[in-house]
Write a structure and sequence with these properties.
Layout lengths: L1 E4 L10 E4 L9 E11 L1 H7 L16 E9 L11 E5 L8 E5 L3 E3 L6 H5 L2 H14 L7 E5 L4 H12 L3 E6 L2 H10 L3 E4 L5 H8 L5 E6 L5 H6 L2 E9 L12 H6 L3 E4 L7 H14 L1 H5 L7 E6 L3 H10 L5 E5 L1
Parallel strand pairs: 8-9, 8-11, 9-10, 11-12, 12-13, 14-15
Antiparallel strand pairs: 1-2, 3-4, 3-6, 3-15, 4-5, 5-7
GO molecular function: NADPH binding; oxidoreductase activity, acting on NAD(P)H
Organism: Novosphingobium ginsenosidimutans
Keywords: NADP, Oxidoreductase
């Protein structure tokens, strides 16, 4: 089969077609004939050599796929054969065929195009776990989300609104702010044109937000804390602005802040299976009914994965980029 891989880390140009054997599903796995694969920021970081796959994972990039189940491993229900599914995978998505754990798959709803299905798992699993499980978000609260038009940001807007949150996002220009409002954000702040800390204070009448979903880290963390109410929760899911943050621990204690974060890829298969079950019960019905659909940016042929990465790194995209296999 044809896959997109790289021999050495570097820029988008290192992504090249390669020919490798079609994998065989093991116990609990299915083999999916990939129709589309999602492109995500961790793929870019892996290509740069800064995010190696966890032990046992495929070195081929790609963390989410959609397609047809064409082979089953042991202990997988025969009913899955021939099903259209989307799946969270630990690697291997940029390929004509990809292995997935059967219990990390979700059935593609009738009427949902496969490009949209492929755009869901990585952001849906990430946002659900970090906003609702680690962040304890509940109806009536306000959340601040950085990167409002990214894949994560657009998913956070949609899920936040579906579950009764007020959503404030930051974006890099007026056009993206307008797009975020169109998607459903209640407020969009152009962080290049104004201080988001002061804007959050203004929007919330000085009260602040209960929850921050942070993809920047670095010096944003201290600024985020200034946006939070007492007992606020801060969840970090990426470190695009740097891994180090300087914090005033007396402020954290006195205001009873909770700081947490997570990475999804290295978590155990059992954890991801339980997360998939919770999403299937609580969030997937919103997509199955058509109430929610991912925000799509652009589809590239698999062979043009380098161009897809270049678009993501340029920061011009709004929503999800996918590869058409």
């Amino acid at each position: 089969m044809t896959v997109i891989g790289f021999d050495a880390p570097g820029g988008p140009e290192v992504l090249q077609p390669q020919t490798v054997p079609v994998p065989t599903p093991g116990a609990g796995q299915v083999l999916v004939k990939v129709a589309y694969a999602g492109v995500n920021r961790p793929d870019v970081i892996q290509r740069r050599g800064l995010y190696p796959p966890p032990p046992g994972a495929s070195p081929i990039p790609g963390l989410e796929i959609a397609g047809e189940v064409v082979a089953l491993g042991a202990d997988v229900s025969d009913a899955m054969l021939g099903q259209q599914v989307c799946a969270l995978v630990a690697g291997g998505g940029y390929a004509e065929y990809c292995l997935a754990m059967a219990d990390h798959c979700l059935p593609v709803p009738a009427g949902m195009p496969l490009d949209q299905a492929a755009a869901l798992p990585e952001t849906l699993f990430t946002v659900w776990h970090n906003v609702f499980e680690r962040g304890w978000a509940k109806e009536g609260e306000t959340i601040l989300v950085h990167g409002g038009t990214s894949g994560i940001g657009t998913m956070a807007i949609m899920l936040g609104k579906a579950f009764g949150l007020t959503v404030i996002v930051t974006c890099g220009d007026a056009e993206k702010c307008a797009a975020a409002l169109e998607i459903g954000a209640d407020h969009a702040i152009d962080y290049k044109a104004s201080d988001f800390v002061e804007e959050v204070k203004r929007i919330t009448d000085g009260q602040g937000v209960e929850l921050v979903l942070d993809m920047v880290a670095g010096d944003y963390v201290a600024r985020n804390l200034r946006c939070m109410k007492e007992d606020g929760r801060h969840v970090t899911i990426a470190v695009q602005g740097g891994m180090q943050a300087e914090l005033n621990m007396a402020v954290i204690m006195s205001r009873r802040y909770t700081l947490t974060g997570s990475t999804l890829r290295p978590r155990s298969n059992q954890f991801k299976a339980l997360l998939a079950q919770e999403i299937a019960a609580n969030a997937w019905p919103l997509f199955a009914s058509g109430q929610l659909r991912p925000i799509m940016d652009q589809a590239f042929p698999l062979a043009d994965a380098a161009a897809a990465h270049a678009r993501m790194e340029a920061g011009a995209h709004i929503g999800k980029i996918v590869l058409r296999v």
